[in-house]
Hints:
globular, 3 helices, alpha+beta
Amino acid sequence: MKTFKKNSSALFAAFLMSVTFSSAIDTPVINVDVEDYKASKPAESELLGSWEYAAENAPDKYKVGALSIFHENGENNVFVQLDEREILGTKVNLVGNTISFEVTLEGTVFAVKLTAKGEALTGTYTSADGTFQIKGARVKIM
């Protein structure tokens, strides 16, 4: 009887090893493109949220405003609040803590590029008249 227990234990161990190793050999390898994975993830950026800004060399009615940067339905979005008007940015590209987008005001396209560092916002806007500075700060909600 002792011999049977010894042999059956050895056979059972051999069976488990064969099942384990044979399934490992048959397991398909899945290749994941890291860039595709990153693109499918929601943006993780210091820029997400609300900001107040001041734009150098802009007409008075556009000199100050607010931005809302958010991720929704798999897309990055930006709203620009000017006076009583809200404009949706187009061609939005958010990478890390830098965002670029375009807005059209009175028929003129403005290319905007901003970077967040902590609670500060800096960047530029470019139009046919040149490139000018933008500075801002995060809106704190209490």
